[in-house]
Amino acid sequence: MDLFTILVICLSCLIFLLIWNQSYSKGKFPPGPTPLPILGNILQLDIKNLNKSLNKLAKDYGPVYTLHFGMTPTVVLYGYEAVKEALFDRAEEFSGRGSFPVSDKITQHLGIVFSNGETWKQTRRFSLMVLRNMGMGKKTIEDRVQEEALCLVEALKKTNESPCDPTFLLGCVPCNVISSIIFQNRFDYSDDKLKTLMMHFHENLEIVSTPWIQLYNTFPSLIHYLPGCHNKLFKNVMDQKKFILERIKEHQKSLDLSNPRDFIDYFLIKMEQEKHNKQSQFTMDNLVITVWDVFSAGTETTSTTIRYGLLLLLKHPEIADKVHEEIDRVVGRNRSPCMKDRSSMPYTDAVVHEIQRYIDLVPMGLPHAVTQDIQFRQYFLPKGTNILSSLTSVLHDDKEFPNPKQFDPGHFLDESGNFKKSDYFIPFSSGKRVCAGEGLARMELFLILTTILQNFALKPLVDPKDIDTAPVYNGLGSVPPSYQLRFIPV
């Protein structure tokens, strides 16, 4: 080894130690595995299945411990008590959005999901108000979901019982529901723009769930300039932003300040009202990112949950049969299922909840950050400390859900067969950063799944015991494997 190499290594170690000392002088972090210079704990983690590593480390260090992703310390919360204490009991202090470099690059800290401070507070508050005005949580949005679910039924009938991959068609329903709110229109299922948008949403979820993106988030300044799937992600999002901007420009030409038609109109009117406020959060850049947030979050997460749910029902036909029986008894065949039916359909409701619990769609949630210097348990966490809350550790808690790795609707039923709520059911996270579209998503999941099963029997192409339900990626999201099935009209 030459002298220059030795000097570079020594200098790197010195820089790391200086940064290390500065970070620890500001706070008393929980214990955790000893990080390596520059690399942190990345070599000690299974980045293909980070959940497995988090579980093992929790056994070694307890429910609150520290991991270093590169040189950034991140406090991990593992288990119901730790997650609840932080995200729910101390919601305001843990309401910051932690660093997620690949998304920070895309959103520039704008929009709802990855923003902070006044940008987040004002944009989220305004967006929730508009979504309520547009019918979220009301009968009007339920009518839209029901209508779109019937469009899906007609599209599935056209498959003529032939084997098909349901990915695209299942995504059309939540995509069109959210499109009607944002753009005041729906897409025909044959529309090429819809096909492209759906392809991008699907690819984006897969990409952000790969180990490569975990490396990007750990070493963004290095990985950004290398070839890799992050470049495909950035291109997809750029195309989506271009589509959104085109729609915004169309809205600007026909805008009536006294008669908003959809989400974009409401935002444009707010921009006009605050055009003289130099500190306004309501800008064109924020509008594009906010629409992208609502559009993407309102489409792919719901469609992936439904797609994963159908795969689980193919694997467990005895469960699907019980749902069919309950639908026939409560709803029948002459009308569409509605939300009022849910209270009379405890088994179906339990199946929908168990799908969400079992698939654990966003295993670690999105990163949080503390909004001020705080004392948490016996530790001192400085403002801005990244927080990783393991939703898996709550959704798969073996005391609350016996045999948590088994798909069992009984997890949400009492001895009498009545639906049983659980405080551990937090697939939408918890606290101030809980998913803004939770109400709409829960409505869509119930209505879409019941409408499909009201009209079709699901027929697998292989023996159910040979169906593999393990996710193909388990990073930011749990991505189900591709599969085909036959939809048999009943």
Automatic annotation (TrEMBL):
Signal peptide: 1-25
InterPro entries to which the protein is assigned, alphabetical: Cyt_P450, Cyt_P450_CS, Cyt_P450_E_grp-I, Cyt_P450_sf, Cytochrome_P450_fam2
Assigned GO CC terms: endoplasmic reticulum membrane
Membrane topology category: Peripheral membrane protein
Subcellular location: Endoplasmic reticulum membrane; Microsome membrane
MF (Gene Ontology): heme binding; iron ion binding; oxidoreductase activity, acting on paired donors, with incorporation or reduction of molecular oxygen, reduced flavin or flavoprotein as one donor, and incorporation of one atom of oxygen
Keyword entries, A-Z: Endoplasmic reticulum, Heme, Iron, Membrane, Metal-binding, Microsome, Monooxygenase, Oxidoreductase, Signal
Positions annotated to bind heme: 435
Requisite cofactors: heme
BP-aspect Gene Ontology terms: organic acid metabolic process; xenobiotic metabolic process
PROSITE patterns attached to this UniProt entry: CYTOCHROME_P450
Family, per entry: Belongs to the cytochrome P450 family.
Name of the protein in its database record: Cytochrome P450 2C21-like isoform X1
Organism: Chrysochloris asiatica (Cape golden mole)
Originating gene: LOC102823116
